[in-house]
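Incident review: delayed structure delivery

Summary: a single-chain prediction request sat in the queue longer than the usual turnaround. Root cause was a stuck worker, restarted by the on-call engineer. No data loss occurred. The affected request and its eventual output are reproduced below so the record is complete for anyone auditing the incident later.

Affected input:
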Amino acid sequence: MSFIAILGAGALGGTLAHRLASRSRIDEVRLIDDHPTIAQGKALDIQQSGAVEGFGTRLTSASAIEAAAGAAAIVFADSSAGDVEHGGEGGLALVRRIAAIEARAPLVFAGASQRPLIARAANELRLARPRLIGSAPAALESALRAIAGLEADATGVEVQLRVVGVPPHAAVVAWEEANACGQPLTALLAPHQIAALTARLPRLWPPGPIVLASAAARAAEAVTNGSRRRFSCFVAVGDGSTAGVLAMPVELGRGGVMRIMRPALTRLEQTRLDNASAIS
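Output delivered after worker restart:
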């Protein structure tokens, strides 16, 4: 029976556990936090809501990170002490401990502030790059799709676009390939509307815990079930020994990143992406 381990029962971790359970695509969700009563309480609350919401996913909790051993995917969320996303030296120590007990599971970083942690995991700990996935850019895309849908007199579901680079200030929208309702978005929106959406992008970062949890749930399900879903995620890129971390469109499957894709960009957009690569 496969399970997904969530490290941290803060606002993001708890919301993510509920989101995964309610989608009923994972056998078990294991919530792990240093404060066992908080993790246990949230797991129990979510489990009991299953009778009302109609899901049967099993919710369990633990206080020791060794409980993540054998997980199909391990998600780094936030501590219940202050709802602080795992990061910095403490976050790197946590990644190191996880790598020692689980050598194969993909590591999904759900927080908006965890891009530096992914870079350190790749460059200092030398973890396999396909294992390292930051799902926050997919949350940013969701917010931008919703706004672009309103501008195009459509819904966010009908809009397809990609955000690449380094949010918030070095993010690049691939407007060249964006579309809505089967038409290029550049044909539905005037240049000043696109410029306004681009200018608004930094104010959409960081996304809130609900949309971050939704993005992390989809990424974790993809690497667990092997559904080969496509998302924009933070990934370690570069051919050298030192990796940069950028938001890029990727294909996720069982085990992690299957393929990094290059979006269709204008010359100006490509220049901005190259500049973002230089600071990654």
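Verification: The chain has two domains: 3-105, 137-280.
Action items: add queue-age alerting; document worker restart procedure.
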